[in-house]
Each structure stands twice: as structure tokens, then as C-alpha cells.
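Q: How would the C-alpha cells look for this protein?
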Amino acid sequence: MKHLRWLLLVALLAIGAPGAAFAQGGDHHDPLADVSFEQRLGKQVPLDLPFVDEAGAAVRLGDYLGEKPVVLALGYLECPMLCPLVRDGMVKALSEVEGLRAGVDYTVVNVSIDPAETPMIAANTKAAIMSRLGQPGAERGWHFLTGTQDSIQRLADAVGFRYFYDETIDQYAHAAGILVLTPGGELARYFYGIEFNPSDLRLGLVEASGNKIGSPVDQLLLLCYHFDPSTGKYTGLVMTALRVAGVITVLALFALIFLLNRSSGRPGSPSGPAQAVG
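A: Here is the predicted structure in C-alpha cell form.
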């Protein structure tokens, strides 16, 4: 019965639900209030948070910021259900983003929300991910961090990632999704769910970088598309297209009127009604 309740929770979270409710013994606490992914767009993440990387080295979150946009994922490495789905979706989407590479154009940072997880677990997870990604050199831009409860909680609070630990099944309940940070550490984009559109991720990275990466086509797409925070997707701006078409039409009319006026003022051009010939 416990596993059935957990599967129901995961199913709800995977489609972007902020949480799910289930009873824990005689406790009627509603975990819906403890699981959510609240958008804090434009907010700054704390750069001084201490963590430990997959090699066992002491690092700070700010070590991965400053030059490139960052794809940030919170979860835990030994999660049996939801987290591997999120990681697989992220790996698949980023591997299909043409022209942008981890370590060159952007950085990926995975942070464990379980303070009991170790750098060895992080190293094993990274090795599996790099093998699946199949991009030589990507390991320099793909990092797995573990840390204390204080560092984890401060980061989770800063990005609006609310989760809780369920002692009855020894697992964490949390939402599904990833984030994109600007090189300065500001929250730029939230992408929800376990599958991510490569085009949306590309536009999010280009936009977060201050349009310093990508191609001229990306810049044009950013003019034609708009990020919808409620869905975590880029959508076409129909009204913008209509406005552009309207402006072009008005300019064409003015040009036509100008040409007609010039034509009517030339020598030999009729300047008034034709006179009757006797």
C-alpha cells in the first residue's frame, strides 16, 4: 500500500503537479503544502553556498557561475523513481541541442537534496551520465554536488524548490523540473516535468547568456517567441506577428501614396479634369 501511494505521488509530480496528498499512519498532514516548485524569476541564488563535488573537493556554488549560463537540477542521486527520469530527460534534451555543448557554452550543475549522499555516489552517477551522453569533454562542464542540510535548504529556498522527507518509505517527495541561471546566478527559466523540448532549452540558454551564445536564427526566434512561465515553454507570439504585418501594410500604403503624388506632379501629367474639346 505504501508503494502504491508513492507511485501515485510520482505520477502527479511528473506531470507538473505541485504535490500530492496521502496519509502517513494516523497523521493527517497534507504534504501538498510541502512539495512545490515556485518560480522566483530574476532572483539571485546565493553564490557562497559550500558543497563538495564528485571528486571530493570543497567548492562553492559561485565557482560554476560567472561566464556561462547554468542548467541547475535538484534531486537526489539514489532516488528510485522520479530523479532518474528527470536526469534522463535532461540528458536527452541537451544532447539534441545542436551547436551548444556543456563545458563550452553552458554548465550543468546537479545538486543532491539528500545530505547523506557522498561524493562517491556522485562520481558513479556522473560516470553513468557521461557514458550515456557520449560527448567527449562534456565532463568538464557537468558537475554533481553533495552538501550539508543547511546548504541544500538555502539553495532550495532560493529557487523555490520545496520538498520533504517521508520516513515511512525512506524517500524524498519533490517536484520534477530543471532551471536555467544567468552567468551571474539569477534565475532565468523554469522547465517543468521529466521531458524537455531541446528547442526550448536552447532558447532558454541563449536568452540567459544575454544572447552571447547561439546563432542569428536564435536571436530572431527570441523576437518571435515568448516564454510562458505557467507552462515552462516558449510559445509563438501571434499578436506580435499581426502587429508586424500591420506595420508593414501601413508602410506599404504610405509608399504607394508617395509614389502616386510624385507621379501626378511630373510635366505632362494631368493636373485636373479633362477639358471638353469644341
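The longest helix spans residues 238-264.

The radius of gyration is 27 Å.

Upvote if useful.
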